[in-house]
Fold this sequence. Notes:
The chain is built from 12 helices and 9 strands. The chain is of the alpha+beta class.
Amino acid sequence: xxDGTLDEDxxxxxxxxxxxxxxxxxxxxxxxxxxxxxxxxxxxxxxAFPHHLIPRYAELDIAGLPYxxxxxxxxxxxxxxxxxxxxxxxxxxxxTFYGVHSGLAMGxxxxxxxxxxxxxxxxxxxxxxxxxxxxxxxPQGGSDVAAGLRTTARREGxxxxxxxxxxxxxxxxxxxxxxxxxxxxxxxxxLGFVVSGSAPGFTATPIENKIALRTVENADIVLKDxxxxxxDRLQNANGFRDTADVLRHTRSGVAWEAVGVMxxxxxxxxxYSLEREQFGGPIARFQLVQDLLVRMLGNATACLxxxxxxxxxxxxxxxxxxxxxLAKAYCTSRMRETVGWGRELLAGNGIVLDYGIGRFVxxxxxxxxxxxxxxxxxxxxxxxxxxxxxxV
Length: 392
């Protein structure tokens, strides 16, 4: 990146950013290269989250960029996408931490909260004085969570009593605010609640022995007669349709992350091919090696074009479920394929953490599954193009 831009962006999509937003992205890029890249393998290997960096992330002033409560003038979806890409290009765990806080947690409040709730929570979350988490998936429910949510909410006067369990909740072990989705026992509607991480009846236990996104602190959550005031119920979350609106936007973020993972793996493979010598010269001079590199770059470039258009649709207000669903399904599938080619290029060195490519291969498996599996996003897209729902 000799001129401060992304060398891997062959078609120069980044040039579409306004100058002010390009400066923000460059600030993020510099921070990640200095503060995250040198340590990412170590944190991943030890499954240790760098809590000391949260104040440094706050200084970047990038949490809540799309929300007017955090910035007088919200930025384009293109910038938020490129930030997700840049984080994932260096470390998918850090991209996930950021996406959970700024996208899922803050996004739920921004889209489903009342004006008063937005003013109460978003500014402090934007300054990262309060960290957010998002609790939807359950131990016995993932893809079927729309109809099969088991966590319940029972109203008692001006208080709601929550009971149930959640799984895979990123940031939950240290989050100040957790957006919990639960089914109203009376109406059967899915409601959203902002629960304090220190609330009585709320416990979060770290999930151990992960083989992907090891730096992320995912947790199992238990809610046992956890009491939440009516004032902390998201006032505009009145059914799963509202939950799905949040996910529609964050799925596009995962597609951007998938492109970042592809480009990160591609850069490792390219650098390795220029440095690794076999048969009297760098392996980059061999046709089959160049074939792998070009296939990796082709996948990443095609997917980058898709998510750039996705951001434009979002900013134009014509963004629909099938747009983010197709991008998430397609980009993560190509990501899985692409990181595999990178590992293949590194041969035996591709299976040790030292060279970094192994981390990308493992983390790709998590991105492939979260925010809706390929199958679920395929059915969302299939319903849109055929007019026929094929869900069970």
